[in-house]
Specification:
This protein is an all-alpha fold and 180 residues long. Helix 1 runs antiparallel to helix 2. The longest helix has 76 residues. The protein starts with a helix and ends in a 24-residue tail after the last helix.
Length: 180
């Protein structure tokens, strides 16, 4: 006849082996998730840089268009014989230049906001990944403690034989405790 305590420890060992296999699978999943997160962060970094570069290009185009419009206004006013440094002509030119500058700065600001939104989304994804990793770690600890508890309960469920010698307690038997 088999020793019930030995069966309990064997069942515990099988449970621990199963948990170890599960841990390896979770480690592979965490490693894959970490690699994907690194790729996502790199893509976000590139997208933010691209957004800023597009903003610079659009700002430059806006300034060029504004410069062209201001030159047309100057030419028309000069053709009419108006002094560009005084009165209504001056007010018209400074007002148009102010609007053009505001438009260029709005384009720059919008590009920076877009880049910031991309960076914030990447940071949120990174935080989400760290939380997922923490949940995996907590689940692992919980699985190990459950396996230990089941093995100990199994070993406690079999009473020791009185004096046959077949069920003599081995080292650490005092940790299991008396039968329930």
């Amino acid at each position: 006849m088999c020793n019930p305590t030995a069966l309990g420890w064997a069942a515990f060992a099988v449970g621990v082996a199963g948990i170890a296999a599960q841990d390896r699978a979770q480690a592979r999943a965490r490693r894959a998730a970490a690699q994907q997160q690194a790729r996502n962060e790199e893509l976000a970094r590139r997208a933010a840089k691209d957004a800023q570069a597009r903003g610079i290009i659009e700002e430059s185009r806006s300034r060029q268009g504004s410069s062209y419009r201001l030159a047309q206004i100057r030419a028309r006013l000069s053709a009419q014989g108006l002094d560009l440094g005084e009165g209504g002509a001056f007010d018209l030119l400074t007002g148009e230049a102010s609007v053009a500058e505001e438009e260029a700065l709005t384009i720059r600001t919008n590009a920076r906001r877009e880049a910031l939104a991309i960076r914030q989304a990447a940071a949120a994804g990174s935080t989400e990944w760290r939380m997922m990793d923490a949940r995996f770690s907590a689940a692992r600890i919980s699985s190990l403690s459950e396996a230990a508890s089941l093995g100990i309960d199994f070993a406690r469920s079999y009473p020791r034989a009185p004096s046959t010698g077949l069920n003599t307690p081995g080292p650490g038997a005092d940790l299991i405790g008396p039968p329930a």
